[in-house]
Amino acid sequence: MAQEREIATRITSLRDLLEIVSAIRAMAASQMQQAIRSLQAIRCYSDAVGDALSDAAALLPSDGSVAAAARPFKSGLVVFCAEHGLCGAFSERPLRLAEVAIERSGGRLALIVVGSRGGQICRDRGVHPELVVPMATHCVGVTAAARRVAAELYRMFSQRQIAGVEVIYAQHGEGPLAHLEQHRLLPLEMPAAEQRREKTSLLINVRPQLLFDDLVGEYFFAALENAAMQSFFSENSTRFRTMEAAHRNIQNKSEELTKLLQRLRQEAVTTEILDLISGAEALSSI
């Protein structure tokens, strides 16, 4: 009886845990769907800004002023991680790549971690980032998180702590694991200008240099927001697969315990019947 009560208690606990896992899985799936729609909008925005930036660069004097600058002595390395757990080794993979990049750079990269979970992993490893910025926990907060990162980068630029920006983030592909992307955002690499069928003269009301500088800021933020949204989608995709595996494991364990409980109860009933028969036979033989 004691064993039966223990097994029944474990089954009840597993059912409660299954409800929690199902809820987390559903939220991750919802966040993935929202992130996909947001990525499509960000891609259109980035293409539009890139085209405008190419047009603005054509308006500047051809004296080499818009050519990509040489790689600076020190750059900020922005690594997008998760804000919370329950997503396997999602945050550890980009951090390992960042450690390799920093080692190869000879100390020319300042680590900037986006995501409290990533910051905790750094502390556990004895790594001290220059800055830890919170990552969004909902799709609607990704843009705000990207703006916080951009504001911190502008501050570091103004204080001459860094002179360039590189970014590492997870981008979900066809396989079970998201592949890692590492890009240089600043100094600016001009987007390739596409050949237009009809060339029209541009009408502008500001100085070409001012227009170019403003578009550089927009292009930089668009790239940063894309990295943040890609990481957010990959994080929730990893969390969904983790919860899906946990859901199956809990179901299998619950089924095993249910069968065990049924067998124990059947054995108890059989034992009781045999005891009654033995008792009846003993009484009849008196």
Task: Please describe what this structure looks like.
- This protein has 286 residues and is an alpha/beta fold.
- It has a single domain, classed as ATP synthase, F1 complex, gamma subunit (Pyruvate Kinase, Chain: A, domain 1).
- The protein contains five helices and five strands, in the order αβαβαβαββα.
- It has a five-stranded mixed sheet, sandwiched between helices.
- Strand 1, helix 2 (92-105) and strand 2 form a beta-alpha-beta unit.
- Helix 1 runs antiparallel to helix 5 and helix 4 packs across helix 5.
Describe how the helices and strands are arranged.
Blueprint: H1 2-59, E1 75-80, H2 92-105, E2 109-114, H3 116-125, E3 131-133, H4 142-158, E4 165-171, E5 179-186, H5 208-284
Parallel strand pairs: 1-2, 1-4, 2-3
Antiparallel strand pairs: 4-5
Give a summary of the structure in a few sentences.
This protein is of the alpha/beta class. Helices cover 62% and strands 10% of the residues.
The third-level CATH topology is: Pyruvate Kinase, Chain: A, domain 1
User: Helical content, roughly?
Assistant: 55-70%
The CATH superfamily is ATP synthase, F1 complex, gamma subunit
CATH class: Alpha Beta
Mean model confidence by pLDDT: 88
Number of separate structural domains = 1
Features:
single chain; 286 residues; alpha/beta; Pyruvate Kinase, Chain: A, domain 1; 5 strands; 62% helix
